[in-house]
Amino acid sequence: MATTRFKIHPFLALLIASLLYGISAGIAPIEVVKIINKGFGDTLGQIGLIILLGSMIGKFLEKTGGAFLIAEKLLKLTGQKMVSLTMSFAGFLVSIPVFADSGFIILSSLKKTLANKAGISIIAPTIALSSGLMASHAMMPPTPGPVAAAGILNADIGLIILLGLPVSLFGALCAWQFAERFAKNKKLASSNEKESKDEITVEETSENKGLGWAVLPIFIPIILIVLKSIAQLPSAPFGDSLFKEITLFIGEPFIALSIGFLFALNLPKKFKIEMWSTKGWLGDALLEAAIILLITGAGGAFGKILQQSPLTEIISGNLVFDNWGIWLPFIIAAALKSAQGSSTVAIITTASLVAPLLPALGLDASFGLALTVLAIGAGSVVVSHANDSFFWVVTQLSGMNITEGYRYHSTGSAVLGCTAMLMVFIISKVIL
Question: What is the CA radius of gyration of the chain?
Fold first, then answer.
């Protein structure tokens, strides 16, 4: 209610909720303050640097045109007739290091150009792009939401990546099929679809060194983090070798993202000291990440208050949803997303709420924790509508009116989240 009705910033809303709930739960006021400080500090201590580094990598990809280049090269693989599929994959890759809103803005001009060249409506490529962006934004580390949930639940980020790849890709492909079947031949009601047919090329928009350099900052950290998770498997595939020790070190998310950022620094054709200034690329990245950090920290504080209150014992002792299993985190996240609009807030709050319930749900082992993060991520995109800033980015840049936004974008987000959750459920039946 605080964020939707009174338009209070989520950071302040979470802090106020933490204070009021802690006091109303019978915790001494001074203890409430200590718990909030500990929850805020512990959460940011675990994931703060990861979020900052991910934002910095994303900003360099955005400013050099590396993200745009990836999308254009993908088109050569899929072909001119597969515009929507191209935009889905482009959105999926770009949103791993770049925030979804920024990713849509970056790729919007390419989407319009490709749709015009193919002679199709921009609705289907728009929904495919937005769904691809949301899929990795909500379910693929090192994006802030999944990383924050992993920190709160003590889940293995490498396992989340391994399981999240098929889950998020399946959801994105289902949303692409929805766009192809129900939006491909639809025209916008407004006249805004008459976009310029001037082709936009990478050379006109970028100053990067090429595709090879553009993909390295994305994939190198992911590979290193996954290798660390493999090294830690009970079967000990790397034994006790020096290679294992090196893998465990460079696979730490902070180290892996730092290495990724070093590759990102090589993206510009010409280095300029202004890029490092407070008003340059680095400054922009840190400012964008600061908002996410504040919300994440406040969410961690709220979660710590919940864990220290009698609510956890009451719910755990009288759990009426114990047979819901992996579906419970999804339902809570979907309800929070629909109510207040922010996927990141929905992810962080849900993770804090379900953390004490995981043993009763049978999800407190390593694979269960990873699947819980993915279930929360899937729920956090159901559904994107008028209280979500991303809804307005998508509709305004595509010329959709509100009715069309609900019909195509909101429905597409529901398809994405529900099908991704279906995949989570199937995997849980196999490995849990």
Answer: 21
Q: Residue 84 in contact with residue 125, Cβ under 8 Å?
A: yes
Which structure tokens are listed for 49? 């640097």
What's the CA gap between 247 and 362, in Å, rounded? 30
Residue boundaries of the structural domains of the chain: 10-431
Concatenating the DSSP letter of every residue in 2-44 gives TTTTS---HHHHHHHHHHHHHHHTT--HHHHHHHHHHHHHHHH
Which three-class secondary structure state does DSSP give residue 268?
A: strand
User: Rounded CA gap, 150 and 161, in Å?
Assistant: 11
DSSP one-letter code for 208: B
Residue 203, pLDDT > 70, answer no
Q: How many alpha carbons fall within 13 Å on the CB side of residue 49?
A: 11
Residue 147 predicted with pLDDT over 50: yes
Q: Which residues of 84-98 are buried (b: 16+ CB within 10 A; e: fewer)?
A: bbbbbbbbbbbbbbb
The secondary structure of residue 252, as a DSSP letter, is: S
| C-alpha to C-alpha distance for 29 and 22, rounded to whole angstroms | 8
> Tokens standing for 269?
């054709």
Give Cβ neighbours of residue 66 (< 8 Å, ≥ 6 apart): 60, 206, 208, 213, 214, 217, 267
Omega of the bond prior to 383 within 30 degrees of 0, cis? Answer: yes
Please give the backbone phi and psi of residue 270, each rounded to the nearest 5 degrees, phi first: -135, 125
Would you state the pLDDT for residue 97?
A: 79
User: Ranked by mean pLDDT, which of 92-106, 217-231, 367-381 comes out on top?
Assistant: 367-381
Dihedral (CA of 299, 97, 392, 414) sign = negative
Q: C-alpha angle 261/107/256, rounded to 5°?
A: 15
The stretch 173-194 carries a mean pLDDT of: 78
Asked if residues 294 and 89 have their Cβ atoms less than 8 Å apart, the reply is no
Q: 372: closest CA among 317, 327, 323?
A: 327
Q: How many CB atoms lie within 10 A of CB 232?
A: 18
Query: Which tokens sit at 164?
Result: 């999240």
Alpha-carbon distances, residue 66 vs 267, 370, 381 (angstroms): 8, 30, 26
What percent of the chain stands above pLDDT 90? 32
Which two tokens mark 286?
A: 């840190």
For 110-132, give the DSSP string.
Answer: HHHHHHHHHT--SHHHHHHHHHH
Backbone torsions φ then ψ of 323, nearest 5 degrees: -90, 0
- Taking the C-alpha atoms of residue 238 and residue 157, their distance in angstroms, rounded to an integer, is 19
DSSP category for residue 339 = H
